[in-house]
Amino acid sequence: MRMDKKQNQNKNEEFAEDLNLDQNREREIDLNRHRNREEFAEDLNFNRDQINHNRES
pTM for the complete prediction? Predict the structure, then answer.
């Protein structure tokens, strides 16, 4: 009986570690999405500025 309790505890710890890894992966994906949006916005603004500059030339 004691062995089953220990095995369950080990399994629970493994599941907790997996869940933690999954949550960290999700967080990293969200950060990358946000970073990509910011970079895209910066590129878009740069391109707009370039177009306006070319029109004025």
Answer: 0.61
Q: What is the DSSP string of the chain?
A: -HHHHHHHHHHHHHHHHHHHHHHHHHHHHHHHHHHHHHHHHHHHHHHHHHHHHHHH-
Name residue 43's amino acid.
Answer: D
How many Å apart are CA 53 and CA 32, to the nearest integer? 31
CA 45 from centre of chain: 24
Residue 1: pLDDT above 70?
Answer: no
CA atoms of 9 and 7, how far apart (whole Å): 5
